[in-house]
Write a structure and sequence with these properties.
The protein has 15 helices and 5 strands. The chain has 302 residues and is an alpha/beta fold. Strands 2-3-4-1-5 form a 5-stranded parallel beta sheet, covered by helices on one side. β3, α5 and β4 form a beta-alpha-beta unit. α13 runs antiparallel to α14 and α14 packs antiparallel against α15. The radius of gyration is 23 Å and the shape is elongated.
């Protein structure tokens, strides 16, 4: 159980104990940063809950486990919408389904991923079910921002907090998946497997950024502006790119303890860039300003 998931070993033991002792509550909140495995934990936990074996759960061989792996287990309902909001109609459909008894297991599990995206009305629609759930129903709310959930919902759920992965755990993920990595890439992950996957999928972009900003102290203005096209062509990832650039400057601060003032100023420039973009400033002009401001900052040698 949970052998395929890296990190949060304490929570693995907590959830294993719940299964082994058959001490399953009706509702849970799995909270923590984005991309650290909460959703994977919820699905594996659900698989164990639904397992029909009395000794080893999940057994991976009973009818429930096999159908779970094949994606056709009717006793688990997962809401994992890509839209920015989870609307009332979606939750009403869930509460309607929850009245139907399990088909093959003794329980039914409902997972709502990114549950913080439920509208207030949707949360209120779910509340009555949380107050009086059928004896066979288990609801797991997975969230990266627990503060957006109503207090009345939070008070009715068992909370399980997931921590960011350590550098060694991120390295474990890289090694397990035969991914070559560099230290700044490790820092940029921020303890998130999701970030690690994105970095690897677009590593050619981030390697270009790495090459420029790791050597930016020794470049002229034209060379610095050479990264502009890469940034402009990846507008959808701009905030992640800006965070990555700041990671490289943080890394320079660590390497140059006695000469950090200019790098701290560069970090401030990147943060100002984020603010300008969120205010809908002209994208091309903002990137020009950013690169030229960073170059001017580093050129002063102060």
């Amino acid at each position: 159980m949970f052998d395929n998931i890296i990190g949060n070993n304490r929570n693995k033991q907590i959830l294993k104990d719940i299964i082994e002792n058959n001490n399953i509550s009706h509702s849970y909140i799995f909270s923590g940063s984005s991309g650290i495995g909460k959703f994977l934990f919820a699905k594996e936990f659900a698989k164990a809950i639904l397992c029909m074996n009395d000794t080893i759960r999940p057994c991976n061989s009973c009818k429930s486990c096999i159908s779970f792996e094949n994606g056709n287990n009717m006793d688990i309902i997962v809401i994992d919408e890509q839209e920015e909001t989870i609307k009332t109609d979606t939750i009403k459909e869930l509460t309607k389904n929850i009245l139907e008894k399990p088909i093959q297991s003794s329980k039914k599990v409902y997972i709502i991923n990114n549950s913080e995206n439920m509208t207030k009305e949707a949360q209120n629609s779910l509340l009555k079910t949380l107050e009086e759930p059928p004896e066979y129903a288990i609801i797991i709310l997975v969230t990266s921002n627990e503060n957006l959930l109503l207090n009345t919902i939070k008070s009715r759920c068992i909370k399980v907090f997931f921590e960011n992965l350590s550098d060694s755990e991120i390295k474990q993920y890289f090694n397990r998946n035969s991914i070559d990595f560099f230290d700044s890439m490790l820092y940029a992950c921020g303890g998130s497997i999701k970030n690690a996957i994105e970095l690897n999928e677009k590593r050619d972009i981030y390697e270009k950024i790495e090459n420029i900003f790791s050597n930016i102290d020794y470049m002229n203005e034209i060379q610095v502006l050479g990264i502009k096209e890469t940034i402009l062509n990846n507008k959808d990832d701009i905030y992640f790119i800006l965070d990555y650039i700041n990671t490289l400057f943080y890394y320079k601060i660590i390497e140059n303890i006695n000469n950090t003032k200019k790098y701290k100023k560069c970090i401030e420039i990147i943060e100002e860039t984020k603010i300008r973009l969120k205010r809908n400033s002209n994208y091309d002009m903002t990137i020009d300003w950013t690169l030229l401001a960073i170059y001017a900052c580093l050129e002063r040698n102060d």
